[in-house]
Amino acid sequence: MKKTATGIDNLFVIEPTVHGDDRGYFMESFSEEWFKKEIADTHFVQDNESKSSRGVLRGLHFQNPPMAQAKLVRVVQGEVLDVAVDLRKNSPTYGRHFSVLLSAENKKQLFVPRGFAHGFSVLSETAIFSYKVDNFYSRELEEGIRWDDPDLNIDWHLPKEEIKLSEKDKAQQDFANYESQF
Prior knowledge:
The structure is a single chain. By secondary structure, the chain is mostly beta strands. It has one domain: Jelly Rolls. The chain contains 2 helices and 13 strands. The mean pLDDT is 97.
């Protein structure tokens, strides 16, 4: 496996080593030993998966302490633009975002530590998005930031008229109104 720094502390792109031939491929998608040595001493407690169609945008989501979540995300079918926004108030990159194309083809993963908002847009006809989290879901502590917040200025790689949002994501707060708990 190979890790690549993103320019934001503790946020990494991970590329597994893929062994392939005319029969298909094999790869190790996660190794606790490697992960603890190279990325973070994180104990994942749950795996989640979603299936979405083109134009679906999920995010920008996070959970506040003490139920904040680190995530290890990847795509097993299709392609998404994955985005993480630094919400750590004492970070030199507070309010900056990083985006990366994740696909079944490139097999890249993104490690999103605690203290980040996270979201993705589906660029293929469908996508299956899989992710590990290091804390359980808490409805009471979940929050979000508007996907189209002008201060963040995220290019989701989709025309605005194609974007499909949940009612919850349509009503998220502006970044300027968010008071960081990280």
